[in-house]
Hints:
Two copies of one chain form a homodimer. By secondary structure, the first copy, chain A, is of the alpha/beta class. In chain A, 38% of the residues lie in helices and 25% in strands. The first copy, chain A, has 16 helices and 18 strands. In chain A, strands 7, 8, 9, 10, 11, 12, 13, 14, 15, 16, 17 and 18 form a twelve-stranded mixed beta sheet that branches. In chain A, β9 and β10 form a beta hairpin. Chains A, B: Pathway: Amino-acid biosynthesis; L-threonine biosynthesis; L-threonine from L-aspartate: step 3/5; Amino-acid biosynthesis; L-methionine biosynthesis via de novo pathway; L-homoserine from L-aspartate: step 3/3.
Amino acid sequence: MKPIQVGLLGIGTVGSGVFNVLQRNQEEIRRRAGRGIEVTMVADLDVERARAVAGANVQVVNDARAVIANPDIDIVVELIGGYGIAKALVLEAIAAGKHVVTANKALLAVHGTEIFAAASAKGVMVAFEAAVAGGIPIIKALREGLTANRIQWIAGIINGTTNFILSEMRDKGLDFDVVLKEAQRLGYAEADPTFDIEGVDAAHKATIMSAIAFGIPVQFDKAYVEGITQLAGADIKYAEQLGYRIKLLGIAKRRSGADADGVELRVHPTLIPAKRLIANVEGAMNAVVVQADAVGTTLYYGKGAGSEPTASAVIADLVDITRLASADPEHRVPYLAFQPHTLDKAQAQLPVLPASEFATSYYLRLRVADQAGVLAKVTGLLAGAGISIDAVLQREADEVGGEGSTQTDLIILTHETREGTMNDAIAQMQALPTVLAPITRIRKEELN
Amino acid sequence: MKPIQVGLLGIGTVGSGVFNVLQRNQEEIRRRAGRGIEVTMVADLDVERARAVAGANVQVVNDARAVIANPDIDIVVELIGGYGIAKALVLEAIAAGKHVVTANKALLAVHGTEIFAAASAKGVMVAFEAAVAGGIPIIKALREGLTANRIQWIAGIINGTTNFILSEMRDKGLDFDVVLKEAQRLGYAEADPTFDIEGVDAAHKATIMSAIAFGIPVQFDKAYVEGITQLAGADIKYAEQLGYRIKLLGIAKRRSGADADGVELRVHPTLIPAKRLIANVEGAMNAVVVQADAVGTTLYYGKGAGSEPTASAVIADLVDITRLASADPEHRVPYLAFQPHTLDKAQAQLPVLPASEFATSYYLRLRVADQAGVLAKVTGLLAGAGISIDAVLQREADEVGGEGSTQTDLIILTHETREGTMNDAIAQMQALPTVLAPITRIRKEELN
């Protein structure tokens, strides 16, 4: 059987990886797929660079639409990124009857519903293992490996840039701004790091995982997103003293019961017990923990970015598509793990909850005057709100200013409560004259 | 479309889990599979117990062959275990044109070649996610998630019983025999624990993974198997002082180069750096680390045994089969990840190596007389054999016997060497009059 023909849209970091790994491991890949997989056409604005990577046997063009129009191309791999031209090209490739592989988490988290509907109508596959956690086969685990389970929650370190920054802040006791500059110098953070450090990238990935885990449509617009830019070194240190690490987690949690039926979809810095495996995932590495009713806790760890790790995921999709290209749609795995016609009903039954409905526990840091009665006032307010306290850490007073006035940090860990309740309690505590600075609030998850 | 019909051979711990999870999550599973999956017939020698689990709507028989003979049954799930009757029944089910799901690692590691050949001839699937690492979808990750890669090595904690015992020995400073009894009392070890503690179970699983990773046939008879029964508490303590943990690992490693082209397939207690994630996998949990050329290191963690974790894997296979039952064989994933007709050639090119060809580093513990010159003699012998030393730990002498004679433990960590070379060096050291007891040798892997 002749090789399946692949066209790459974009041959930068990931595209080069795809091309090189397909070349290097072509024999092993053919032995697995039962058929050769060949990149025969590449579109890139930088035609010279593309020629340098792809060599003389590959047709290089600067117009992505020429790849889509080529009747010999079976699979289009979209590696352009973003919501703009990438969306148009993916939809055009689908309309042309091509199968599509994409690493574009932003596109799928925002426009997935439209894209999967178009693909379903044309009977083509859209595969996206590379869109979440790079080389870790987490999409396959969720879509196929855990199909027996009712998934309860997913919590993942799914952005390498922020995990690198948090690891460095903890290891070296440095502040965010300093470490960000170092990360940019080392290539772990981009020149414009906004999507990473503000949590948007992690939220794209968490959105995709929430859909696959719970059988709901992608709903990025309803995700709660909080990055790491406001995180102080002091909080990392206090968390450590209390036996916790702070990680930027993407969380998708199913809630059911008397209070609320729905899904929490949130990205934010999170205290997690230092003894958990995921708390020990350092540097730019990724890991995803999945809690499901039959299997219990499973964890998946690996490189979440980079040329060849991401290429590993793209090529796994190419192999799957090669195998199923001539099969009926019913033989294929549904795009978002669940049969598409069931998603709307699930969305109604399992809405994405607003932040005020989150149920979690909290780390609070209050800068307070070192006076008698402050702790009693603060804990009295929490008790009045029905929030119970798990632990308190009061630092020795440090002198500031003149006239003998002193301030101190008061750290409180709470048990689980409703976020709306906590917001009200924080507003009340903030109004106390002995609370001298904005209160720091970081969510805490036990992940057990 | 009417539900796919499943017959269970055996409804003990795992079978009950399969039945219960399929019932409890039937709606979610149907939404994923696109079709209902129902257990409609069960064979178990204990018909009463089977009826109690399966209820009145399921046909219960005491003859497994009645399930295989039932033309309405699409998939037979073999949960009997062992090489005997299970093998006959699996082959009969295949001959009857049934798809087969099995959790039987022993059967596949020993008779896999025959079973897969029979299945291939009949055009039926044989799926076995539950055979390795219980609920962790490691077979799927290796067969499908990492298809882009040339896999270099796999190292796994793939036997929960022995990991529980080793964790307890380390935590509580207890000896093997004491902990084994505790494990049996708690249900973590069977009344006859031989297959677990002697490493046979782990070797079955490592054998299956070696085939899927490297595209070779299952060759359990060539596996090197060493259990944990000889492991002393002292070695766990010394390892800890040197920054290592001791775990029973199943290892499959590709070797290529001037010295040897082949596969190391081995199960034995192993020192691994305490800072590795897998070194912190405690109790009965399982984890598998995979090193591959494109993706780098990935790790998969979860429950390796138990009713519902194992059922999770069995049902994932049922969903895959449900989806592909009416597809052509070419649309399915090859049994051992690689096209069957390519395995024999690979076996010739990549033979399983004898133990003397292993390349690894070592932990050695020598009980020596506390005399001047002993360390020089021992290190001189190692140098003469071309084995270089990484670290030495000499304990203070402890008094034994009368007349002021003293003994001490000498611990040596070596760099990588050939096992045959190490065997010779150990024989020479053992012959020294100042070496007072059999030398302890434990292999060491950095896993980086």
